[in-house]
């Protein structure tokens, strides 16, 4: 009787791929985890208990067939494992790198609940697809038949690209419009290379372009082309713009030089990574080299900022967060990586204002967040006025509400302050002159939760512009679902037209 290749979790401990040492990795933007070797990947995949009801699959937004491709990996059948993985996930090698597995698949692994340590699902997922690319197992996008209908996609982020992939495989003609000079959205410009090397994103962009997707880059809707023109040119439109409007601080000195938005800081860093000419980096405005850096926020964007600042050569990097470590929304794995690299977390703190030249000038008076009351913009930032907090009673979500400790303020010296406070949607109905495009009270687009169609016929919306700031994996799911709904609709319309012609 052949030995069961699975159920090794009792005898084999959990193991992640080797991680580069902090001193080695903090000087570059290469990914910090090394690749699994074939035997290590098979060994870790063999720890899967092959649950009858796999919670890992249930809690994955894409409902990936995780137990199936883990078993195939354990058996050395990697090409089949890739085919199963790719069947439900457009970009498994990206999700394997950046998904918060500790909150999704791995966090709900049955053997984790039993105390044996979760299967390293994300690392195996990444390994499978990287191996598939290396061995030429990833086929080109080649529809069996071409369809005459076309779809315009606004936004080349993960949701838009996932939709483009699915539509092209169905033979639909696809044009993607994006304001940036590269496709990828936050995959290219928002997530640093040490979490997702840009060659991985470029590889998928090339695959899409070679598969027939047309990209119109440096094309901003409302400036270079109108939304009405896009609707007129296509049989359907998908809005996948994401949310890029940064939340602001309404505190004195918030417009001082050196107080910057996280998205601006990360975008400039990524452009430099690509080798672009970036004046804002070269002149020091969005460069942490030699500076005392303070990052405000506790999400994954804040983690990206603190770790980027370390790599740029900051003299010190501190992260202010109004709650404690246990209540931090960012990945605990990212917090640990940041601490290893030299980031200091200052828990239970809230910015109450900023120190900057001109703010305390008795002849000028106190300058407000937008320089109101004086007409004079503050000079370079020199510090953050920090209010110490304590956790009070739980709010409606069950999380304890931070409360200010009176009289415990102090100044944290800083030469660069990065605001990583989250993102909000832009006012698309106004920007695009489309008042009929319905939005929620949060400004996100209203869309059917199954088809993703909006109040405008033939217009669909996916990803963060519907959900608010969320995960890449949810955007991929939305893009695939919207593409399926569009193909179904186009097929029904074609059948109806054929029936009329036959009569």
UniProtKB/TrEMBL annotation:
<dbReference type="InterPro" id="IPR023753">
    <property type="entry name" value="FAD/NAD-binding_dom"/>
</dbReference>
<dbReference type="Pfam" id="PF14691">
    <property type="entry name" value="Fer4_20"/>
</dbReference>
<protein>
    <submittedName>
        <fullName>GltD protein</fullName>
        <ecNumber>1.4.1.13</ecNumber>
    </submittedName>
</protein>
<feature type="domain" description="FAD/NAD(P)-binding">
    <location>
        <begin position="402"/>
        <end position="479"/>
    </location>
</feature>
<keyword id="KW-0408">Iron</keyword>
<dbReference type="InterPro" id="IPR028261">
    <property type="entry name" value="DPD_II"/>
</dbReference>
<dbReference type="InterPro" id="IPR006006">
    <property type="entry name" value="GltD-like"/>
</dbReference>
<dbReference type="InterPro" id="IPR009051">
    <property type="entry name" value="Helical_ferredxn"/>
</dbReference>
<keyword id="KW-0479">Metal-binding</keyword>
<dbReference type="InterPro" id="IPR036188">
    <property type="entry name" value="FAD/NAD-bd_sf"/>
</dbReference>
<keyword id="KW-0560">Oxidoreductase</keyword>
<keyword id="KW-0411">Iron-sulfur</keyword>
<dbReference type="GO" id="GO:0046872">
    <property type="term" value="F:metal ion binding"/>
</dbReference>
<dbReference type="GO" id="GO:0051539">
    <property type="term" value="F:4 iron, 4 sulfur cluster binding"/>
</dbReference>
<dbReference type="Pfam" id="PF07992">
    <property type="entry name" value="Pyr_redox_2"/>
</dbReference>
<keyword id="KW-0004">4Fe-4S</keyword>
<feature type="domain" description="Dihydroprymidine dehydrogenase">
    <location>
        <begin position="26"/>
        <end position="136"/>
    </location>
</feature>
<dbReference type="GO" id="GO:0004355">
    <property type="term" value="F:glutamate synthase (NADPH) activity"/>
</dbReference>
<feature type="domain" description="FAD/NAD(P)-binding">
    <location>
        <begin position="151"/>
        <end position="357"/>
    </location>
</feature>
